């Protein structure tokens, strides 16, 4: 059974209450605390049912594995200068392993590129305990539960939005955000606007290689917003996104944020 919809104490909602993200995320004092609360969330009944039903009927290749089958938190250092924002966990990827982009085709492409850009300690990620370390980078998503057909609804995106808003706000050194795909782009823009960044109107259109520098009305530091096609199996197999295209965006983001290896940002790893 998924998290209950009642039983909160001290005026706090239970994990299954639709208001759980909005009322819980702002209370978190660190990214680690936020991650623990994200993993408890059950605010979207359709997603709870789907993530648990997938775990109850695993693919043959994963029959002997115990699925995570909960919301998948972001991961990476709490002082990350770069955030990479995807779409949602894959049903037999993050929903199985408990770590974003881990154990699926999109993750194979993403982590190889992060490693070449000097942003990850190794080029692959199979499970949570495999030793992968992200360098100055945090990987997250606007929706933390695996959705049917990889398609969250707008309502599910909006219910989950407080987690993303709080996560980005809890990264004090954040200087750049790379968004993988149009869905994530549409989710990130209102978060940044609400956080005080000067998001232009009309809002910047998503596109691979898009790069916008957002100032703040209060005079705070600038934020670089970059777009890339999502490294989904379909995008990669059709050539819409190549490893070189993704590497180019990540290398640029590393350079402008200072994330990764070296004081001036990383150089790509050799072939």
TrEMBL record:
Keywords: 4Fe-4S, DNA damage, DNA repair, Hydrolase, Iron, Iron-sulfur, Metal-binding
Superkingdom of the source species: Bacteria
Residue span, Uracil-DNA glycosylase-like domain: 73-250
Pfam annotation, one family: UDG
Composition bias, Gly residues: 1-13
InterPro entries per record: UDG_Type-4/5, UdgB-like, Uracil-DNA_glycosylase-like, Uracil-DNA_glycosylase-like_sf
Span list, region Disordered: 1-26
Transmembrane segments: none
Family: Belongs to the uracil-DNA glycosylase (UDG) superfamily. Type 5 (UDGb) family.
This protein's name: Type-5 uracil-DNA glycosylase
Organism: Streptomyces zhihengii
